[in-house]
Amino acid sequence: MYNEACHHAKGDENLHPITIVGLGLGAQDLTGRAEALLSGGARVVLRTARCGAAGWMDERGLPFTHLDALYDRAPDFEALQRMILQEVERLAEEGDVVYGVLDIRDRSAGALALKHPTQVALIPGVPVDGALAAFAAGPTDGFAACDFESLQPSSDQAALVREIDSRELASEVKLRLMERYPEEAPIRVSDGEAIREIPLCELDRLPCYSHKTSALIPAAPEPTGLARFGYDQLNAIVRRLRAPGGCPWDREQTHESLLTNVVEEAYEVVDAIERGDMAALYDELGDLLLQVALHAEIAREHGEFTSDDVTSAICLKLIARHPHVFGTEDARTSDDVLSLWEQVKKKERHLNTQAEAMRAVTKGLPQLMRAEKVQKKAAHVGFDWPNALEALPKVLEEAGEVREALIAGQGVEEELGDLLFAAVNVSRLAKVQPELALKGAIDKFVRRFEATERLILEDGRRMEDMTLLEMDAYWDKVKQTM
After folding, report:
1. Beta 195-199 vs 186-190: how paired, if at all?
2. In order of start, what are the domains of the chain with their CATH numbers?
3. What pLDDT was estimated at residue 350?
4. How far apart are CA 157 and CA 181, in angstroms?
5. Consecutive H or E run containing 236
6. Dihedral of CA 46/3/214/179: which sign?
């Protein structure tokens, strides 16, 4: 928790007992044990005088000291923590000390207990919300403003940002916070002396800034005022939709009823990528992510798994399947990486043979994609054509067998399957995705058919009244132009 600089104080043999007691925020939060310790005659040191315990002691004429002045002397947060530690240790060398903190989870309390386990006693009080306690005591926890790039706030939780020492830094912090909180959200700002309330959008309009400037942003329980959301907010919204009083449609959904939705949303993502439409892409990715959130929530309700299980599974898989990044394996090319993946996946799934690896390919895939994956499994053990040109005669051979099956009037489906499988082999070896190749062919056919129909209509004719030969003449004209 603390570095070696914390150990410059004298050893425990020079310290009297230190009793650390949780005070809470207001005088009404003081427990009977806390009141007895504060009035028991030992030296009382309060972490901050900005608490109800200070007023309670003043009313009774009880002496105490506080550490608020250290803020003015500390150049930064870490230095402040060291100075607090050293001051409590110095006072403990003179006699017994009762050190009062708003919440026993205060960092200085933990540091003292860790450093002097035999001399320190911890007396819990009324728990205080961590962000609120830290704010009331000064910038003792939360995020340092200079770390705004790593700040990951969540609107359903309060956030404390400390050490906002410049207007420029305040502006950066404000923009990051407004990604998760309403821009007009009322926040509390402290300069170490006074606390004021302002809208979040005015965080960079304060009269002055210093290392003592901190801001407390309260949680936003309702999502309706937010402009941007994280994955946690998505989960919360889905949970509310499926809760009693939520949306009737969402409440009726099951894993099975959503099957086609997952596939449809995935294809819409593909379509947005192919069109190069980035606005549509993030929208479609959101629709796909909703399917993930819905399935995770349905599973949580049935005690099967949660969204954390989903994210944990993929993170663990990524780490395990990238031993060249997170381990000691070496992979210098994409082919090396794919080879490593195959080895790792076989171990994960306890697959001992390549045939087992083939059977493990998901049967729910579009069959062109499944054929490609199965062929790749065979290729990993050398069962493959050397290149696309040498695989092409197999397509011609299979086409001949389709012809024979058609003449015989039997086995047509099987032979057509062999033909398609052989065509996928050529496509794969030519580095062309068969699914995309077929999509391109379909799109081209639709464009040519549309142009053919247009030409026929322009000539005052109807396709329904024409022979195939007549239509082919128009089709050939179109093929010359597209």
Report:
1. antiparallel
2. 4-134 (3.40.1010.10), 142-224 (3.30.950.10), 231-320 (1.10.287.1080), 435-479 (no CATH)
3. 66
4. 10
5. helix 231-242
6. negative
**φ, ψ of residue 194 in degrees (nearest 5):** -125, 160
Structure token pair of residue 315: 């993170």
Q: What is the DSSP string of 354-409?
A: HHHHHHTS-TTS-HHHHHHHHHHHHHTTT-S-SSHHHHHHHHHHHHHHHHHHHHHT
Q: Where are the alpha helices (H) located in 93-204, listed in sequence order? A: 107-115, 130-137, 167-177
How far apart CA 451 and CA 457 sit, in angstroms, is 10
For the chain, the farthest-separated pair of C-alpha atoms sits apart, in whole angstroms, at: 111
Distance separating alpha carbons of residues 408 and 43, to the nearest angstrom: 105
- pLDDT value of position 4: 38
Q: Are 101 and 75 in contact (CB under 8 A)?
A: no
**How many Å apart are CA 470 and CA 466, to the nearest integer?**
6
Cα separation, 268 vs 277, in Å, equals 11
pTM over 0.70: no
Which residues fall within 8 angstroms of residue 176, CB to CB, at 6 or more apart?
148, 149, 151, 153
Q: 18 has which bridge partners?
A: 97, 120
Residue range 399-447, pLDDT digits in tens: 999 999 999 999 999 999 999 999 999 999 999 989 889 988 999 999 9
Cα three-residue angle 7-9-12, rounded to 5 degrees: 95
Question: Which element (helix H / strand E) includes 292?
Answer: helix 278-301
The phi and psi torsions of 49 (rounded to 5 degrees) equal: -85, -5
Confidence band for 136, pLDDT divided at 50, 70 and 90:
low
Query: Can you tell me which residue has the tokens 């009762």?
Result: 98
Instruction: Give the Cα separation of 246 and 243 in Å (integer).
Output: 5
**How far apart, in whole angstroms, are the C-alpha atoms of residue 402 and residue 184?**
70
> Both tokens of residue 110?
């933990």
Would you say 77 and 134 are in contact if contact means Cβ atoms under 8 Å apart?
no
DSSP code at position 442: H
Q: 68: which 2 tokens? A: 């608020």
Instruction: Record the tokens describing residue 126, joined without a space.
Output: 């009324």
Cβ contact 163:211 at 8 Å? yes
Of the candidates 46, 121, 55, 50, the one whose C-alpha atom is nearest the C-alpha of residue 84 is: 46
Distance CA 445, CA 259 (A): 30
d(CA 319, CA 323): 7
- What is the rounded CA–CA span in Å between residue 113 and residue 109? 6
What pLDDT was estimated at residue 199?
94
**Cβ neighbours around 288 below 10 Å, total:** 16
End-to-end CA distance of the chain: 70
Q: Which value, in Å, is the radius of gyration of the alpha carbons in the chain?
A: 35
Which one-letter amino acid corresponds to residue 392? L
Under a CB-based contact definition with an 8 Å cutoff, are residues 371 and 424 in contact?
A: yes
